[in-house]
Design a protein that fits this description.
The protein is built from eight helices and 16 strands. It is α+β, with helices and mostly antiparallel strands. The protein is globular. The structure holds zinc ion.
């Protein structure tokens, strides 16, 4: 478990475990001879993929960013991807019980980002974080019901019951969620994917989610084949780096199997490199 202090906040990286994605899907047009130097594929061409959530504690609040795959994947998906279901035990190890969580933020609603939003109790779907207010983008939720190319990545039981009960609030674009914690839309992976910004003590951290899923995806053009709008991904990354690099932001990686966060720097050749924060 990795922990770091950012001004008045304590950030703890907690994982739901590892799952497995096709390396070609994960690295898009990048040739395997290049990406395999960074992430080794197994005999089925799959790469181990992290499911990193972050707990923010500070200013009297406990905020959970992202909720992994969860424990209720349909059988076929569980066989394809695996279903490690480790988030609750890792939260407990970090000293966080589900009742402690005041706010849950989902960057988007693909199954591997909001799975623990809910659990099945008897035959009912109930919120895992009973007291929490949940937040996602309204455009993302609408898209989840549009039946587009990524329709197979959306499981309504992760969010629709929360929207119906009013426990999930749907946001219209960039906004502040709590003092020092805000969301910003970065289109590319989906049209309305949001990043979570944490600002305190003159420092900034950003959970950039699938815009830059791992520290192996820092190059502007290393874009996942899963992205719906790959050209927008590149433009959004440019916009992100224009602020994050001079500001020395801490960038948090949603799918890195090892590196929960790093400060991204640009070397003399213009290559983006992840640096361990001091
Ligand atoms: Zn996604």
């Amino acid at each position: 478990m990795q922990r770091i202090t950012l001004g008045e906040f304590e950030l703890t990286a907690v994982t739901d475990g590892l799952y497995y994605l096709d390396g070609g899907g994960f690295f898009g047009v990048v040739p395997k001879v290049l990406w395999e130097k960074k992430l080794k594929a197994d005999e089925q061409n799959r790469v181990p993929t992290g499911l990193n959530s972050v707990v923010l504690r500070g200013k009297g609040k406990t905020i959970l960013i992202e909720t992994g795959i969860g424990n209720k994947l349909p059988g076929k998906m569980a066989r394809i991807y695996g279903q490690p279901a480790k988030l609750l035990e890792n939260l407990a190890a970090a000293g966080v019980s589900p009742e402690d969580v005041d706010i849950v933020i989902n960057s988007h609603l693909h199954f591997d980002h909001c799975g623990w939003n809910t659990v099945r109790q008897n035959s009912k779907i109930v919120p895992t974080f009973r007291r929490a207010k949940y937040y996602a983008q309204e455009g993302e939720w609408r898209h989840a019901h549009e039946g587009q190319r990524d329709a197979g990545s959306y499981l309504a039981e992760n969010y629709d019951p929360l929207v119906e009960s009013g426990q999930m609030q749907l946001l219209k674009g960039d906004c502040e969620i709590a003092p020092g914690v805000s969301v910003q839309v970065y289109p590319g992976h989906t049209r309305d994917m949001q990043a979570v910004m944490i600002q305190s003590g003159g420092r900034t951290a950003c959970y950039i989610s699938d815009l830059i899923p791992t520290s192996a995806h820092l190059d502007l053009n290393w874009v996942m084949a899963f992205d719906l709008y790959p050209v927008d991904t590149i433009e959004s990354r440019k916009r992100y780096y224009a602020e994050a690099i001079p500001g020395k932001w801490l960038t948090m990686f949603t799918h890195d199997p090892e590196v929960a966060w790093a400060v991204v720097e640009e070397d003399e050749k213009g290559k983006m490199v992840p640096k361990t924060p001091a």
